[in-house]
Specification:
This protein is α/β, with parallel strands linked by helices. It has eleven helices and 16 strands. InterPro entries: ADH-like_N (IPR013154), ER (IPR020843), GroES-like_sf (IPR011032), NAD(P)-bd_dom_sf (IPR036291), YIM1/Zinc_Alcohol_DH_Fams (IPR050700).
Length: 332
């Protein structure tokens, strides 16, 4: 089968080549990939940014998100059958959706929402699971609470705004001048043009901040929160709890303790909570997200669709950081 793979770490590495068909274990589902979305995570994996946490072997097929059709199931699989239309975020250790076929553990898989096509379904898993695990699991966001979501026009931001509004929260976000009205249409109550206004002096007494930017914005975000509020980052730094949960070597746990000590200490001084969320795969949560999509509460946002032979161009486009919503690769 054909796949987009890398032979070593590096920013511009990547080629389309022939690779063996994946082996299907007892709990695996073999999926013919119809569409796969591109995430910033794919770029970071390509450059080796996560090689200490995710030690992949080469050649490595890139790609985390997928939507497609089941063509084979393992002997122990009972929830899926050939012909099912499915979507998933592949498990960390077995990524590889930039390919014609992928074997996915059944626990990571869910039936695709009926009311969207493959391209829009592929745009959902990683960003929707991230939003869910930040807002529902970690923040336990409640009706009437106030949440600030950074970068509202991005992949995570565009879904997190919709999910937060569904949960009954008051939502503030940031974007560039060109996207203000577009982000308001997603449901944001307050949209700040970061080129015209300082968000950190404009917002106060928020319950939750979803942080996805750099270290400067991380510390400034503490000033937006009210006592007892939660600063939840998806861009780091990781915490010792993250290292423990992922059973990382003690030296990495120590490094994460040191890296996050400053922001954790500053949060404690303000009686705030700091959490780091590294999204995990979950077919069970994708089933709940499917229901929200079919009910119209969440609508996936697709910026551009690239053909499979232009996968390298799709990665380059995402790395520019200017996409509205998600970038998708079509394998139809």
């Amino acid at each position: 089968m054909k796949a987009f793979l890398i032979d070593r770490y590096g920013k511009h590495n990547g080629r389309i080549g022939e690779v063996p068909t994946p082996e299907v274990g007892d709990h695996d589902v073999l999926v013919q990939v119809r569409a796969a979305s591109v995430n910033v995570l794919d770029s970071k994996i390509r450059t080796g940014e996560f090689k200490l946490i995710l030690p992949y072997a080469f050649p490595l097929i890139l790609g985390n998100d997928l939507a497609g059709v089941v063509i084979q199931v393992g002997a122990a699989v009972s929830g899926f059958k050939p012909g099912d239309e499915v979507y998933a975020r592949a498990p960390d250790a077995r990524i590889g959706s930039f390919a014609e076929l992928i074997a996915v553990h059944e626990d990571a898989l869910a039936l695709k929402p009926d009311n969207i096509d493959m391209e829009h379904a592929a745009a959902l898993p990683l960003v929707a699971l991230t939003a869910w695990q930040v807002l529902v699991e970690t923040a336990q966001l409640k009706k009437g609470q106030k949440v600030f979501i950074q970068a509202g026009s991005g992949g995570v931001g565009s879904i997190a705004i919709q999910l937060a509004k569904h949960l009954g929260a008051f939502v503030a976000t940031t974007t560039s001048s060109a996207n203000v009205q577009w982000v308001k249409a997603l449901g944001a109550d307050v949209v700040i043009d970061y080129k015209q206004q300082d968000v950190y002096s404009a917002l106060h007494d928020y319950d939750v901040v979803l942080h996805s930017l750099g270290a400067d914005e991380l510390e400034k975000s503490l000033g937006i929160l009210k006592p007892g509020g939660r600063l939840i980052s998806i861009s780091g730094p990781p915490t010792p709890q993250f290292a423990q949960a992922h059973m990382l070597p003690w030296v990495l746990g120590l490094a994460m303790r040191v890296l996050s000590s400053g922001i954790r200490r500053k949060a404690r001084r303000k009686t705030l909570n700091y959490d780091f969320v590294f999204m995990r795969q979950s077919g069970a949560q994708l089933k709940q997200i499917k229901q929200l999509v079919e009910a119209g509460a969440i609508k996936p946002v697709v910026d551009r669709v690239f053909p499979f032979d232009a996968t390298a161009d799709a990665l380059g486009y995402v790395e520019q950081g200017r996409s509205k919503g998600k970038v998708v690769i079509s394998l139809k």
